[in-house]
Write a structure and sequence with these properties.
Order of helices and strands: EEEHEEHEHHHHEHEHEEH
Structural class: alpha/beta
Strand order of the largest sheet: 6-7-8-3-9-10
Organism: Thermaerobacter subterraneus DSM 13965
Shape: globular
Helix content: 25-40%
Radius of gyration: 17 Å
Number of helices: 9
Bound molecules: adenosine-5'-diphosphate
Distance between the termini: 29 Å
Keywords: Amino-acid transport, ATP-binding, Nucleotide-binding, Transport
Protein name: Amino acid/amide ABC transporter ATP-binding protein 2, HAAT family
Strand content: 25-35%
Number of strands: 10
Family: Belongs to the ABC transporter superfamily.
GO molecular function: ATP binding; ATP hydrolysis activity; branched-chain amino acid transmembrane transporter activity
């Protein structure tokens, strides 16, 4: 479904990605692991077109050169990024935040149905639908960020460190939802510093170091090495 071919990205003189090649098959949940600074977040930013490629290609469905789309075009194609740090709009209500996730869509009746589906998946968000995003707890903000992404009807979700800063109980809750989405057929590329958690849900994993893929293996192989 998604293929990165020899992707290079620099921030000024900092070479963040030095030839990343990887694939996410349709319906797969793939983990992107590795130490801080390895290039995991930059890989997601390259896919969602938040940083330009210096070299290489990003191809969707074997044919579409995603690296030529603007960021909004990537969302329209069903590739939706949940950046690290629970990026929501603190001054908008929970419900308004969710509506912003549907910015590429026009049919209001359909959007309302999807809103209800998000509320079923995240009952805590429904209870707080009229509260400002900034007043939610960290875990609720992470759920809101994921819920907002679902409003764009993703085929491929790019999740950046969804466990960051959450209590173990909330991590479990968030990862149960990630597992559910995977079972429902959403493809997922999951960045995690906590390899243990990621390998419980992922089918395959890539390990990045210094902007390169240093290991690619089925998750069960990596689990047995832990
Ligand atoms: P993580 O390693 O958890 O992905 P970072 O700490 O690298 O996150 O980055 C956090 C934020 O700081 C990001 O928005 C990133 O773009 C920015 N950032 C990271 N490294 C640098 C840097 N060397 N110079 C400027 N901004 C940076
Ligand atoms: P990871 O997500 O694996 O922690 P990142 O993709 O955040 O890694 O960072 C990869 C490299 O790029 C690091 O050396 C980081 O300092 C650098 N970097 C990330 N974001 C920025 C930025 N906005 N400006 C400059 N350097 C950055």
């Amino acid at each position: 479904m998604l293929e990165l071919k020899d992707v290079h990205v620099s921030y000024g003189s900092v070479r963040a990605l030095e030839g990343i090649s990887l694939q996410v098959g349709s319906g797969e949940l793939v983990a992107l692991l590795g130490p801080n600074g390895a290039g995991k977040s930059t890989t997601l930013r390259a896919i969602s077109r938040l940083v330009p490629l210096r070299r290489g290609a990003i191809v969707l469905d074997g044919a579409v050169p995603l690296h030529r789309d603007p960021p909004e075009g990537v969302v329209r194609r069903g590739v939706v990024h949940v950046p690290e740090g629970r990026q929501i709009f603190p001054e908008l209500t929970v419900e308004e935040n969710l509506w912003t996730g549907a910015f590429t869509r026009r049919h209001r009746a359909e959007i309302r149905q999807d809103l209800e589906a998000v509320y079923q998946r995240f009952p805590r968000l429904k209870e707080r639908r009229h509260q400002l995003g900034g007043t939610l707890s960290g875990g609720e903000q992470q759920m809101l960020a994921i819920g907002r992404a679902l409003m764009a009807r993703p085929r491929l979700l790019l999740l950046d460190e969804p466990s960051m800063g959450l209590s173990p109980r909330l991590v479990e809750e968030v990862f149960t939802i990630i597992g559910d989405l995977h079972r429902e057929g959403v493809s997922i590329l999951l960045v995690e510093q906590n390899a243990h958690i990621a390998l419980q849900v992922a089918g395959r994993a890539y390990v990045l170091e210094n902007g390169r893929v240093v290991l690619s293996a089925p998750a069960r192989e990596l689990r047995s090495r832990e």
